[in-house]
Predict the 3D structure of the following.
Amino acid sequence: GVLHYPRERDLHDHPVPGLGGLAILVAAVFSALIFLPANQETRGIVAGAIAIALVGAVDDVRPGGLHPLVKLAGQFGAAAIPVWSGVHPETMTLPFLDPIDLGAWAYPLTLVGIVAVMNVVNFTDGADGLAAGVCTIAAATFAIIALSLNRDAAGVLAALTAGAAIGFLWHNFHPASIFMGDAGSNLLGLLLACVAIQGVLKTAAVVALFFPLVILAVPILDTGFVVAKRIKYRKPVYSPDKEHFHHRFDRIGFSQRRTVLYLYAWTLALAALALALRFVP
């Protein structure tokens, strides 16, 4: 009975079933329990994934959704589970500088970073197949980079995230037969953030910090422009509007499919750039 009815800012024109994020959760969790090592970090990631999917599901089911501050508190609570289970870098490697020991700052910085990625992916989820496709591309790219850095568990986590996302994309590409909702977008955001931390930021790679920024550049830029415009016009940053990339493409006459494929192309180009940074001498 959970249906997403068209709102003024939405691109779909008829009610579409929701809670598809729970299918992504089942795929990711079962795969993680089968293929990832049974250690504290895996347990933290799985528990955090379940927690954020449930918070998102409540938001999807509740008429009008959760209050933004309640949702934010739920995001921080879910993100704290993997962070306190060891999913955080102890040092930060930057070009031309010695590695920086984060010390106690590792915990709050990682917590804020995971929540930021959740919201970046959540903001992207506004056109059929957009978030699922972008997350598929990003996770597959992270998998290649993590495995090349001998971060095998992170590579497997990235691969199963890509698999769960592309499996859902089969049903979510325009015209979508189901939406992932906040349960799915927040879940994919948490998984991608954990992949970036475990597979890239924990390594000594000189461009480690640039990999997540480049791979996730499309949703990061989308969120950045939208938030900056809301701040400029003194609106709450959580207030919905029609200023996302997909809304702008819609206004100039792009179909949903053309919009999504265009943003896929940009994400693929940036993923290729990240791979070039990793493999080209």
Remarks:
- The radius of gyration is 18 Å.
- The beta strands are 3-4, 16-17, 91-92, 100-101.
- The mean pLDDT is 94.
